[in-house]
Amino acid sequence: MKKLILFVISFLSLNISSQTYPSQNINLLSLISPNTATTGVGPDGRRYSAIWGWKQPGTGKEYAIAGSSIGTYFIDVSSPATPSVSAFVPGRPGCTWREIKTYQNYCYVVSDDATPNTFQIMDMSTLPATVTLVHNGTTYFERGHAIWIDQDKMYISSTTYSNSGYSSMNVYSLATPSVPVFLRSLNSDVPSITTVHDMYSRNDTVFASCGYQGLYVLKFNSTLNTFTQLGNYTGYTSTAYNHSSMLTQNGQYLLFCDEVPAAQPIKFVNVQNLANIQPVQTWIPHPGTTPHNPFLIGNKWAIVSCYQDGLYIYDISQPGNVAQSGFFDTYPQGGFNTNSYAGSDYRGNWGAYPYLPSGIIVASDMQNGIFILDPTAAYNNPVGIKSNTTESSDLIFYPNPANEKIAIHYNSSSASVVQLRNLTGQLLFEKKYLQGFRDYLDVKDLPNGTYIITVLNNEQKIIKKIIVNH
Predict the structure, then answer these.
(1) Using the 8-state DSSP alphabet, how is residue 264 labeled?
(2) Nearest CA among 210, 209, 319 for reference residue 270
């Protein structure tokens, strides 16, 4: 028996922007775009890259730390409706890669853009007035693609030195946070791994996303100061460029994204036996979506950044029956919202940080800025569990409430029927389509009130509410 999935999609408009943002169960609190530089902007107008967050001990203030094409911004989001820039640290201009992590009161920033470049360490204890740059140079390395901090160890992927030397991944001790100490290069122990794009580590077990080589699981032994390989996951269905991953809190499942070529599905795998990793489920928000970075909360939630289609929240509490709970499209200029991924697949939402104590999510869009989002409705959404892998995101409609017209988009390869009824069940509109469709429903003559949209095909039945308010 097919389950019915009920949710409401709304368009949000802010006075600070003339743009509208398609969304489901995620509310826009504010948007800030401090990088107004006329030079030093990356290709495609890329002004922002990775984002992280930090709560300041003592003051309780919350910050979004945003990488940009010209440096790193420290944005006070303690009052999420009115964010403000507290500090800025310049970096290499024109940078389209800048990755950030924090440990204690220190912030570490790496960039993999072309030379000359630097590794930066900032002391954040002086916020909100400023931050103190304690290292900005090449003595450790010049370029790194990504960074992860596990306890007091810092992992750097695709490390390039100023003398053009290279390591697939390095690990450093942060026993003295302002002065990292090199411990080991992965090349010394597992030279067959030539590239690590990104990595997620917990208790020295490292899940390394190794590009076209796949996913490798490694153990760093602090006593012996060596890496050993525990397992790998390669040659899987829809194998592509393994980009980034994250582990559930119970350590039983891993979610990862493949970045290249575009439009690869999200993968969810069982890692309880690292010598025999097994697939659980794959899915993709829309046929053209490119998932980029995943972030997991406990064993319940996956927050996935998807380039042109924005931020998605999934209930992953029942592996194999993942259900979408919300989304927010930070890049309405393209993607599924416009039925066009023309130009560049790699625009839009880069990453997010969903771990601030207040519960807000800060998300970076390469072109549009830093979004401060409220995911409360998504976390409280009783999405239920579907009996198949067809995603509820196949149907999108807006605006809600509606005044004159409702835009309705439905993705399907089979014949479909859309119906509009009032709350008494009276059929007001019905139209048949040979497959998916992009159409409008005229509601300007309907009385104010709540109505029901139903979409039927031979695979599923979706019911949604719409409010008409003239």
Answers:
(1) P
(2) 319
- Adjacency order of strands within the sheet including 226-233: 198-202, 205-209, 215-221, 226-233
CA 439/CA 419 separation, integer angstroms:
13
Q: Is the dihedral of CA 154, 158, 162, 163 positive or negative?
A: positive
For 301, the enclosing helix (H) or strand (E) is strand 301-306
Burial bucket for residue 333 (CB in 10 Å: 0-12, 13-18, 19+): middle
Distances in Å between the Cα of 294 and the Cα atoms of 151, 208, 267 are: 20, 14, 10
- Specify the CATH architecture of the domain 399-468: Sandwich (2.60)
In sign, the C-alpha dihedral spanning 368, 370, 374, 379 is positive
On the 0-12 / 13-18 / 19+ scale of CB atoms within 10 A, 85 is middle
Quickly count: other Cβ atoms within 10 Å of residue 151's Cβ. 12
22-380 CATH fold: Methylamine Dehydrogenase; Chain H (2.130.10)
Per-residue pLDDT at 345 exceeds 90: no
* Residue 310 bridge partners (DSSP): 306
Give the model confidence (pLDDT) of 167-201 as tens digits. 999 999 999 999 999 999 999 999 999 999 999 99
3-state helix, strand, coil in the chain (%, to 5): 5, 50, 45
Note whether 22-380 and 399-468 share their fold: no
First to last CA, the chain: 38
On whether the CB atoms of residues 303 and 312 are closer than 8 A, the answer is yes
Domain limits of the chain? Answer: 22-380, 399-468
Predicted local distance difference test score (pLDDT) of residue 346:
84
What average pLDDT does the structure give for the chain?
A: 89
Is omega for the bond preceding 354 within 30 degrees of 0, making it cis?
no
Q: What is the pLDDT of residue 182?
A: 98
| 3-class DSSP state of 181 | strand
Lowest-pLDDT choice from 7-11, 39-43, 145-149, 210-214: 7-11
